[in-house]
Amino acid sequence: QVQFVESGGGSVQAGGSLRLSCAASGNTFQRTNCMGWFRQVPGKEREGVASLYPITSSTNYADSVKGRFTISRDNALTALYLDMSGLKPEDTAMYYCATGGDCAGGRMDYWGQGTQVTVSS
To answer: With contact defined as beta carbons under 8 Å apart, do 91 and 66 qualify?
Structure first.
């Protein structure tokens, strides 16, 4: 069973950058499954931020982060990354990495514990 540990979150000022990392242990990400980043603010629904399908190398982004965030992975499928630039206060959330068959619907099989991102104006 795969487990994920996210890191890289923190507090930054608007316009700043962060790189989130998600390290897999116990197993790797699977090439046929989606790898994704999600975020959630207390009291709001979880939102898909970015996703990547290793088997096709296709990526998808929420409209709110297009042009600012980039999702990537390592070749060994042991790590997932989210490079965030031009951060805005509305990007403040707990960010989670996950894997499964349905990134678009958020129905994922394995989730990390989350890393907090706080953007101040």
So the answer is: no
